[in-house]
Every structure is written in structure tokens, then in C-alpha cells.
Specification:
Number of helices: 8
Strand content: 15-25%
Order of helices and strands: HEHEHEHEHEHEHEHE
Shape: globular
Structural class: alpha/beta
Helix content: 25-40%
Largest sheet: 8 strands, mixed
Length: 260
């Protein structure tokens, strides 16, 4: 789930129940010999009000653009009505950047995961207002989508923009970008495909750089000595990001590609 850049993380309001980064067990299934494992989610479902406009967008566009989660491989050409490079976005917030990127990259298909219902409604509203046809939404945990719906070498790219930074040290284990999760993503990337992360929390940027750089199948595209990439032209500055930049806050982009 995207957080508002430079906003504090949401309080933990639910017990720790699933481990997004535990590659030893299928999501929703206990490892062998463990009946009820304690695991970790990288997000908390936040309460939020769906506006009248978002509810209307669900009614008008939900059937066309929201896909049902299923524990079987996704037929992407059937879901999008065409064959095209497939980009997975994990946590799109209110969909501002997602809609922009899909608009400026019409030749790509964007499969977008978000658990927050108002965010899904907001993106559906943008799809209708901007006549965007190359987005499909899964209102489901991206970890389970990766595990059950996306076979190996099925993705041309992955976007993870402003994931919850879990500022407190005791909550750092909840961060999405961890070695087992990145390994799972890499399995789904085609040779030459990319992963693009962005964050406005420097300690998380440093963790991302360490985790991505440690994966032997990933190569950093950055040319700067610090290892961070220039902001790709397709990623817009959101209103929250612009606000943070005006206040002197930093933003870090990381772009890595999978080797052959």
C-alpha cells in the first residue's frame, strides 16, 4: 500500500498475522509441521470512506477493470484484451501516479494491486475520466498475487512506489522490500525486465539499495556513485511528493534489471 510521501506510518491496528517476506510457506498455508505460524504483513488495512464518486466508479467500471483474485495463473492477454508487456504495480495509493504512467505508456499493460478500497475507487474514477484502457486492478495482497497468479518470467517490470516505511525500528521487519520478497519478484521477471522502487524515507532507501544490490540476478542501472537512479521520466511527482520537496525532503529512486 502506498503511503503519502513524508506522512507518518499508520498505527498497527491488527495482530501480526502473515509474513509477506517468508518464502518458506505459501501465503495462507502453514509451513510443514506448523499449525498456526506467526507471520508478518507489510501493510495494515486502513479505515477510509469511499466517496460517492468512487462508489459510482466501482459501479460503472468495476466489472471491466477489477479482476477477481484466483489461485491460478492469470491469462493476461485475455484480461487486457491484447498481448503487451506486463508491468505489476504493488500498492498504488489513490492512483494518481498509476493513471499518469499508464497514460504516457499506452503500449504497456499495468496490473495494479491495492487493498485499500477508496484507493481502488479513486483509480477507477481516474480511468473513467481519462479514458485509460491499459490498467487492470486486483484488490488483493500482492504477495499472494505473485505467488499464485503470476508464473515465472511473466513480468516485464515491477513498480513499488512509496511503500509504507514503517519508521520505528521495531516495525522495520514489516517493510515490504526484504530479500525473500525480492527473490520472489525476481523469479517472475523476464530476463532484462526491471524493478523500480521509490521512497522518501532515507533509511528505507538505504535498505532497498542493500537488498536489491545483494540479489545476484539484479543489476543496478544507476550511473551515480551513490547507487540511486535519476527519476525516470514516466514517474510523475505527486502532490504529496511536491509538498515534501518544498519542505526540503528527499526522494530516492532505484531501478534494477534482471540479468539473462
Amino acid at each position: 500500500m502506498q503511503h503519502e510521501p513524508n506522512a507518518p506510518a499508520a498505527p498497527v491496528s491488527a495482530p501480526v498475522v502473515t509474513n509477506a517476506a517468508d518464502a518458506s510457506a505459501r501465503p495462507g498455508h502453514a509451513p510443514e509441521g506448523v499449525a498456526h505460524p506467526k507471520t508478518i504483513r507489510s501493510y495494515v488495512r486502513r479505515a477510509g470512506r469511499t466517496t460517492t464518486g468512487q462508489a459510482k466508479a466501482f459501479a460503472d467500471f468495476g466489472d471491466q477493470f477489477v479482476l477477481a483474485y484466483a489461485e491460478q495463473p492469470l491469462d493476461a492477454p485475455a484480461a487486457f484484451g491484447r498481448s503487451a508487456p506486463l508491468i505489476l504495480e504493488i500498492g498504488f495509493g489513490m492512483g494518481e501516479a498509476t493513471a499518469h504512467i499508464a497514460h504516457v505508456r499506452p503500449d504497456d499493460n499495468f496490473l495494479c494491486c491495492e487493498v485499500h478500497e477508496p484507493g481502488v475507487g479513486a483509480l477507477l474514477k481516474r480511468i473513467g475520466e481519462q479514458d485509460i484502457g491499459n490498467i487492470r486492478i486486483l484488490q488483493h495482497d500482492a504477495v499472494e498475487v505473485l505467488e499464485n497468479m503470476l508464473p515465472p518470467a511473466s513480468l516485464d517490470g515491477v513498480h513499488i512506489f512509496f511503500p509504507d516505511p514503517w519508521h520505528k525500528k521495531k516495525h522495520n521487519k514489516r517493510r515490504l522490500v526484504q530479500p525473500p520478497f525480492i527473490a520472489r519478484i525476481v523469479e517472475r521477471l523476464k530476463p532484462g525486465a526491471y524493478i523500480h522502487c521509490a521512497t522518501d524515507w532515507q533509511p528505507y532507501a538505504e535498505q532497498m539499495l542493500e537488498v536489491l544490490g545483494a540479489n545476484p540476478q539484479l543489476a543496478n542501472t544507476a550511473t551515480s556513485a551513490d547507487g540511486y537512479a535519476e527519476q525516470p521520466a514516466y514517474r510523475p511527482l505527486t502532490k504529496f511528493e511536491n509538498r515534501g520537496l518544498r519542505l526540503g525532503h528527499g526522494v530516492w529512486d532505484l531501478v534494477f534489471t534482471r540479468s539473462a
